[in-house]
Amino acid sequence: MQNIRVLFAAFVFAFFVFAIVAPAAEPAQPAAGKIRVLLVTGGHAFEKEPFFKLFKDNPDITYQAVEHPNAFAMFKAEAARQYDVIVTYDYGQQITEEAKADFVARLKDGKGLVVLHHAIATYPAWPEYWNIIGAHYYLEKTTINGVEKRRSGWKEGLHFRIHIADPKHPVTQGLTDFDTHDEAYKWFDVAEECHPLLTTDEPESNKVIAWAKTYKGARVIYIQSGHDHFAYENPHYQQILRQAIRWTAHKD
Predict the structure, then answer these.
(1) How far is it, in rounded angstroms, from Cα 117 to Cα 209?
(2) What residues in the chain have per-residue pLDDT under 70?
(3) Residue 228: how many CB atoms within 10 A of its CB?
């Protein structure tokens, strides 16, 4: 019995010594080589579970999601150390002068930008945003440089064919024309500098529906597709989104 007590005391002593001197566990770090994505939402309803699954299932990335009005804090230089690419899926936001300057600064730093679906109209009162993404979506009838622009249109629940405009581009490489069930936009302007990636002959849509461009130090992709789970679950859409993130992160 005495020997058992001695052994037990020695065990307890050793346990406490280990607890005192053992280093504390460090927080889990992103896997080496993973692209770090900041995913911005807000201002528009969407099917959250299947949308976020797109990013959870992407083997190339880790991601953190932020919703307006908290997104602007993530555009600060210190916060931007946490990510490599900004993916936007927000809509109709007001933006402060400070946030504008921060956003442009991050692009000048070379952060990638992937703009999805309704994020074409994220900052409708900020003209520089149109230069950043290469398009102007009109939420109301307006006049630009003396030219009257009608309100841009949209139509849900369409089944249409998407054509690969440039099969050699890293974002569309390995893809062929495919069918989709999605929402289409029309009557918006696309800048001449944009490099078309996807087109469609659907009459309820603009012809060019995805493109690549650069803005200062950043690579930028816009993809019109992505209204709901029909788009999210389309393997062609998943591949385009994966490759868009990689290209904007300079991983092509």
Answers:
(1) 9
(2) 1-32
(3) 17
Give the pLDDT confidence of 147-197 residue by residue, as tens digits.
Answer: 999 999 999 999 999 999 999 999 999 999 999 999 999 999 999 999 999
User: Alpha-carbon distance 241 to 227, whole Å?
Assistant: 14
Give the per-residue pLDDT at 1: 44
Domain range for 117 is 35-248
Burial 153-178 (b: 16+ CB within 10 A, else e): ebeeebebebebbbeebebbeebeeb
Question: 114 lies in a domain?
Answer: yes
CATH of the domain at 149: 3.40.50.880
The span from the CA of 161 to the CA of 196, in Å, is 16
Cα–Cα distance for residue pair 163/198, rounded to 1 Å:
6
Predicted local distance difference test score (pLDDT) of residue 26: 30
**pLDDT value at residue 252:** 84
Q: Would you say residue 1 lies in a domain?
A: no
Q: Alpha-carbon distance 82 to 66, whole Å? A: 13
What is the count of structural domains for the chain? 1
Residue 122 maps to a domain: yes
User: What single DSSP character describes residue 150?
Assistant: P
pTM of the model: 0.87
What CA–CA distance (Å, rounded) separates 186 from 7? 80
